[in-house]
Amino acid sequence: MPERRPASNGARKSVWRRSLPPPQPPAPNPAPPADAPGPGPADAASVVQAALYRDGVRVSSSASLAETFRELREQPSGMAWIGLARPTEAELLSLASEFDLHPLSVEDAMEAHQRPKLERYGDTLFVVLRAARYLDAPEEVDFGELHVFVGPDFVITVRHGAAPDLSAVRRRMEETPELLKLGPEAVLYAILDAVVDGYAPVVAGVQNDVDEIETEVFRGDPEVSRRIYELSREMVEFQRATRPLVGMLHGLMAGFAKYGTDEELQRYLRDVADHVTHTSERVDSFRQALQEILTVNATLVTQQQNAEMRALAEAGFEQNEEIKKISSWAAILFAPTLVGTIYGMNFDSMPELHWVLGYPFAIILMAVVCTSLYVIFKRKDWL
To answer: Which of 6, 123, 219, 329 is buried deepest, with most CB atoms within 10 A?
Structure first.
């Protein structure tokens, strides 16, 4: 979970949020040591944390689902908080059987790749969230998927992906027992807050990318079109993650009176809804900005291509003019060569061979032909 924003940067004004202590180093894990006998490989790989709480205090930690079920039955006034990461089908079916989860919600949790949504099945809420994180090295947005089952005495999280960091959510809630004792609803709102807070670094990273792209566009970087397209695709995914959250949170707020939601949690949820709305608007503005940048880039590329075509046309025109001049002078020089070649043949029977004016006639003929050709080419602007 990202660090909380300082007050100067629009920190949450909710009393509920202000009462949360800053992140502290994790306390010694009360769970069984790593070398203690535990569950099988599949269970150990999927169950991230499973604990039982009463009045906001952790009373036990379990290394397996079966042990969590047993402890919850023994302490009916408690609340189970189970965190799973990419669970197996058998584990989800076991949870469905124990907590009476609806088959459709279990099927969605198995298949993943769901859009954000909120559905109520009796006393159980099923929430699908799309978390996001910004990866600095490749400069891209990585999306994760989180499924949350919220019942009267349990919270089950099924995570597909690296985000969000639910261990930080659990640690902060455990450090504030007066909030955790409000029950599963408080846990749900804390998870929503973690997901929404995770959007802030993504927004900042994308804003930086958009600024860089604008610079690259006007610098004429040939790779910028590909980067614009890739970031636009990420913004489509980001929009799909944030836009449905606005309606989901308003749906939760509409049920405040019906389900008797704690007043402090109501303030907290409204605050989260405000941040989701702001994030959704920023994502919309990013998409619009990228579309405008893409249009500007296409215009600049077209202008550059037109300039190159114009330069090529001018070069071709100049080359054509030079060819005309060369051809004209070649024709002019060819005329006297032709006359000289004819009169240079060794024949005794040539009429002008023994003529006294034969030589001057040949010279004058050459001059007349060359002058005529020069005048003709000059009038045609070849010379």
So the answer is: 329
Please, which residues bridge with residue 82 across strands? 50, 156
Looking at the chain, which runs of residues are DSSP E strands?
A: 47-54, 57-62, 79-85, 117-121, 124-135, 140-150, 154-160
Q: Where are the beta strands (DSSP E) in 234-343?
A: none
Summarised one tens digit per residue, pLDDT across range 273-313 is 899 999 999 999 999 999 899 888 888 888 888 888 888 88
Own/partner long-range contacts of 249-256 (Cβ < 8 Å, ≥24 apart)? 249/192, 249/273, 249/276, 251/118, 252/118
Question: Locate tokens 């020069």: which residue?
Answer: 374
CA–CA distance, 161 with 81 (Å, rounded to integer): 19
163: nearest Cα among 205, 130, 209, 131 = 131
Rounded Cα–Cα distance for residues 242 and 141 (Å): 14
What percent of the chain is modeled with pLDDT above 70?
86
Amino acid symbol at 142: D
Please give the pLDDT value at position 196: 92
**Distance between CA atoms of 134 and 210, rounded to whole angstroms?**
14
| CA gap 211, 94 in Å, rounded | 49
Tell me the per-residue pLDDT of 310-369, one tens digit each, with 9 for 90 and over. 888 888 888 888 888 888 888 888 888 888 887 777 777 777 777 778 788 888 888 888
- Alpha carbons 295 and 234: distance in angstroms, whole number: 18
* Among candidate residues 371, 82, 53, 115, the one with its CA nearest the CA of residue 240: 115
Q: Between 111 and 53, whose confidence is greater?
A: 53
Q: Which helix (H) or strand (E) holds 278?
A: helix 263-343
pLDDT of 21 strictly over 60: no
Task: Provide the 8-state DSSP code for 64.
Answer: S
Mean of pLDDT over the chain? 80
In terms of C-beta distances under 8 Å and separation of at least 24 residues, what long-range contacts does 219-224 make, across chains too?
A: 220/300, 220/304, 224/297
Q: Is 260 left (phi over 0), alpha (psi -120 to 50) or beta?
A: left
The residue type at 127: V
The CA distance from 117 to 114, in Å, is 8
